[in-house]
Amino acid sequence: MTPFDVQTVRADFPILSRMVGDRPLVYLDNAATSQRPNQVIDAEADFYRLHNANAHRGLYMLGEEATELFEGARVKLAAFVGARAPENIIFTRGTTESMNLVAYGWARKFLKPGDEVLITEMEHHSNIVPWQMATQATGATLRYIPLTDDGLLDLSDLGSLLTERTKLLSVTGMSNALGTITPLALLIGAAHAVGALVAVDGAQMVPHLAVDVEALDVDFLAISGHKMLAPTASGGLYAKPEILEAMDPMFGGGEMIREVFHDHATWNTVPYKFEAGTMQIAQQVGLGAAIDYLNALGMDAVRAHELDITAYALRRLEDAGARIFGPMNAEDRGGAVSFWFKDVHPHDLATILNEDGVAIRAGHHCAQLVMRRYGVPATARASFYIYNTKEEVDALVDALARADGIFTL
Ligand code: PMP
What we know:
The chain has helices at 6-11, 38-51, 61-80, 95-110, 129-138, 158-161, 184-193, 205-208, 213-216, 241-246, 281-297, 299-319, 346-355, 368-374, 390-407, and strands at 19-20, 23-24, 26-27, 89-91, 116-120, 141-145, 166-172, 197-201, 220-224, 235-239, 257-260, 265-267, 322-325, 336-341, 358-359, 361-363, 379-383. By secondary structure, the protein is an alpha/beta fold. It has a seven-stranded mixed β-sheet, with helices on both faces. The chain is globular. The structure holds 4'-deoxy-4'-aminopyridoxal-5'-phosphate (PMP).
């Protein structure tokens, strides 16, 4: 593994040279959305400048180019997550749409009263609410794996939670609220042993860790492009081919049909039966460029860089008196670090930090069950990516010290 030069990476991101007042921007909200390098911005803009047409429709040069670029992005995304074939990837707007596609296309078709869906208290709302809706619609039951005090999944009762009644286990690969990396191999093995399928929320995992769906033997993987350098509304759902064949489409419309009659229609082949209407073509082309960028750095190097920054941030934040939620060992987590600092409300903290150019997130992070579990209404969260430096962690800690001064006056 060759480490990359962070300053060279930073030079690719025009937004990182912006100032906030007279302070350089320190962008630490990567778990919400990452920034985009010129390579991605150019790929999206060049699509519109040079190749724009609808995909899969035009029998003319631009139409063919647009289709080729769009399908090329599918090939790149499939390879990036280790899928055997590009047809195993459905393009979506990101993880929320992907999970809803599983909930509508698979769960509503196959769940019945008495069946169970098992999720965890660590999930983002986009991996909770679709299952509440699907279990309510089908008469199935939703159950939860609880959390330990130190932000891990509490698997001590897994045997009674995961049973032959469980039809689906849906779990995050990496928590956006706690940073926790979940033990996917163990969970997938245990779920398959009772005949359950496994969906993984890859919104935080795929941008930060090398993922191989074949090696994991995962059934569904939801992917967000906008957290991995790509345009908003890019991303996808990986699923095993036989599952995609069996699933119903969620949207009806153009392109997803083979034939339309007065009283019914037949479906196009996978993946197109799930891609009704005009897709987010330029955005997915941008995702292809983002994947090229990450591949050039190497995902092992991406992880190594983030481990280094995260370990440093955990140490510095703890020394500064912050209460950190989630694992204290950087190896067990990604770079989203949630904390409380003294008794300053996270919203006040984020506002004060902004005056120093430091952008962090404050809130429940769409993970209200996590907030409930640890008895807080919100946390402050700093989250790191390929372009963040230890100097930026220092800027965060300096800004916290200033906030402390303001609130202890
Ligand atoms: N799951 C997790 C763990 C997330 O962090 C997010 C984004 N905050 C989502 C799901 C939702 O992803 P998207 O915005 O792509 O729909």
